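Structure ticket #2291
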Amino acid sequence: MSVRELITAIRRHLVLLVGFLLLGAGVAQLVTSLQPTTYESKASVFVSVSQQARGLDQAYQGTLFSQQQVRSYADLVTTPKVTAPVIRDLRLHLRPEKLAKRLKVDVPVDTVLLNITARDTDPAMAARIVNSVTHYLITAVADVEGPQPGRSPTVRVQVVRPGAVPKEPSSPKPVLNVSLGLVLGAIAGVLAGMLKEALDTRIDVASDAAAASGLPIVGEIAYERAARKRSLVYDTDPLGMRAEGFRKLRTNLRFINVDRPPRTIVVSSPLEGDGKSSVALNLAFCLAQDGARVVIVDADLRRPTVASSLGLVEEAGLTSVLSGQASVADVIQRAERGSTIKVLTSGPVPPNPSELLGTKRMQSLIQELRADADYVIIDSPPLIPVTDAAVIAPSSDGVVLVVRSGRTKREELRTAAKSVDAVNGSTLGVIVNMTKPKHDRYRYYGGYRRNENKPRLEDLGTAPSIENTPTAPVG
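Resolution: structure written out below.
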């Protein structure tokens, strides 16, 4: 995973990352509250040779001897010879080995110092313990290293810094614990996001579809709640983001091949429920908005929806023409909302849709419709469950694949694209449907809608509007 992909994954799973950050901070705060408040008091003793050295060599030898003895006295601090009398002196309800765990001994390198630290929940008791330990350590060293015949020199231990009553607790450390919790939470959040990114193969944004299929993204259609009941954008919000998505789709299709732009377009999807029929209808109406002559063909002979969406008669249509029961002129209908849009509904549902769509009569019908229209938009069934769309693909200028954001999986898109390639069809690109709108775009379109009632330039007599300029049919 590249750095850019990692950043994209983090932004996509920002809620997950924030959740782990809060969880890490919460756990750290909980652990901090459960930890007892303890204090540490530190004392230092100095170890030296008691007899006076007579030369540099003897002084150096005495220093080396003291350094060696200091390491031995560090182990002596936590033995019962020191801890037992401390317990008796301070009347502690502890065993010698328990008190030893509250002591920490440190010997700085190349020194004759011995640092002793005592830990307790009472700051005054921590100071009393460490001072008592140093006292009984000196006594224990005197017993062990006392003057003996034939043994010289004698070691002397003295306190150079007694233990003081601490003012601040040594633990817990809330700031350190919470900081550590935030760091661990951030790491866990990033790892969880990467794991979810690896396991979740659904397409969320256009870059996912492009990476999965290697096909160009020709359109992104934003999600609008009103589209559940009314599929046509002109019945919901003609100035909204969804309508603008279809206008961009119209422009992109025209620029796929400038010399020979696609005129016969099959609209399909990997699986059912991706919104292909809605995309086909809105694309046709968007093309007709420029004055182009458009024919919509409902080639989904299994679950047709075009007739019901436009309120047209569906008893006769495509299957009637393919079976020879009627001609195109007899069954083709004009959409009420578009004067330049004609609709060839599916007609009666046949028992053999794939065989019917693969006939030469279907190929001739497409050419016949193409001759009298600027665009022929064919709504076909999904590619993975059935082969209907793949059968029609070679007779068209290309197929556009509609995927649904947050639902269609990358492997499903790859499988659908391979189905088109297997029949030598051309895939024009991918349309990502029902994407999540960005907030900055919301602000732009909100301002655009607020300004739609303001006087336009042509109303003021300054310049003609491009939108009102007559457009020649594309073809």
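Closing remark: The two ends are 45 Å apart (CA to CA).
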